[in-house]
Task: inverse folding
């Protein structure tokens, strides 16, 4: 299959440019027309140009927001529930979105589906946009024949996750801004105001209180060693960021963050809620509990919690129940463990885990 650069005009008269894969230029033009684009120019790309196109496509995929993916999933679920063919549903959703990067991804997925691939397999070519959890739920919907219902649950999951993330960011913005302003004001006072006041004290010829002398020493130290300390912190941050790419270093950092007062407690609850909601959504979509826990491991960025999820999966594989496996990990709040136990006893594990995540 060759790669072609195209220039086309959409239904609104706007010029669209991009890259498309097809067996020939004629099939590339046909694919563009199926996407309601009027081809103006379709040229074969050179290998270097194709590489640049792939790099540009990957960069654009990184810029796609999770909220846009959630909205597209909701629209796709509505069309799938109305028994629309999946390739037609993808085409409609792609034409409705106003995000060019997401539109190109949806068109590429549609092209793969048109070629005969399953939707979950087509999504795997765009892993930055559709994470493992997304693809696992779509695969479960395809296997059970309830793709529309699964997409509805997936859209609910994505929207709740985005709301939780927005609330967390909103809760942290004010204290973070307040801390930054306070540090800046104190630094300016120590660097510029205190030295002027010290000059006045020197003319008095009297012994100053211990607290005042300590403040003067701190101001002198900031003036002399401040640039050195700031440079050292910047270099140390860069070194730490590079070292964090190694799994062992990142695991140690993640473990340390979870033990920081206040912040660690908030993050534990956040990750526990994310894992509980992910497992509940997957189980409700027909995924076995063991596979649901294994897939949910990718839903948290903290390696300590990811390892805990892996331990939960190992315990379930050995025959333990979900609640017993969660209790054994000791990272999950008692509420999650209790709700999981209630869900197992009543046969409503998915509902109880989602309620625990809401709490």
Result:
């Amino acid at each position: 299959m060759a790669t072609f650069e195209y220039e086309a005009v959409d239904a609104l008269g706007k010029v669209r440019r991009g890259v498309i894969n097809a067996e020939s230029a004629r099939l590339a033009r046909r694919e563009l027309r199926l996407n309601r684009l009027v081809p103006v120019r379709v040229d074969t790309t050179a290998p270097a140009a194709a590489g640049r196109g792939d790099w540009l496509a990957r960069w654009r995929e990184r810029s796609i927001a999770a909220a846009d993916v959630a909205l597209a999933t909701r629209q796709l679920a509505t069309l799938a529930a109305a028994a629309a063919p999946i390739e037609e549903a993808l085409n409609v959703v792609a034409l409705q979105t106003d995000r060019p990067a997401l539109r190109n991804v949806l068109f590429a997925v549609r092209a793969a589906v048109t070629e005969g691939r399953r939707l979950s397999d087509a999504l795997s070519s765009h892993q930055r946009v559709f994470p493992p959890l997304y693809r696992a739920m779509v695969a479960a919907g395809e296997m059970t024949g309830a793709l529309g219902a699964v997409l509805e649950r997936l859209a609910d999951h994505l929207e709740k996750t985005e709301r939780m993330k927005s609330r967390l960011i909103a809760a942290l913005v004010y204290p973070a801004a307040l801390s930054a302003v306070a540090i800046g004001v104190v630094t300016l006072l120590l660097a510029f105001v205190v030295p002027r006041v010290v000059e006045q004290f020197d003319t008095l010829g009297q012994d100053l209180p211990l607290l005042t002398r300590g403040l003067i020493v701190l101001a002198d130290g900031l003036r002399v060693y401040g640039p050195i300390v700031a440079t050292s912190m910047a270099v140390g941050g860069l070194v730490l960021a590079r070292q964090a790419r190694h799994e062992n270093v990142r695991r140690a950092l993640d473990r340390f963050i979870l033990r920081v007062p206040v912040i660690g407690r908030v993050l534990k609850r956040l990750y526990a809620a994310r894992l509980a909601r992910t497992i509940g959504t997957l189980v409700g979509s027909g995924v076995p509990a063991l596979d649901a826990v294994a897939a949910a491991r990718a839903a948290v960025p903290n390696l300590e919690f990811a390892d805990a999820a892996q331990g939960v999966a190992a315990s379930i594989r050995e025959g333990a129940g979900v609640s017993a496996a969660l209790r054994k990990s000791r990272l999950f709040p008692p509420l999650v463990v209790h709700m999981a136990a209630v869900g197992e006893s009543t046969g409503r594990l998915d509902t109880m885990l989602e309620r625990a995540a809401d709490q």
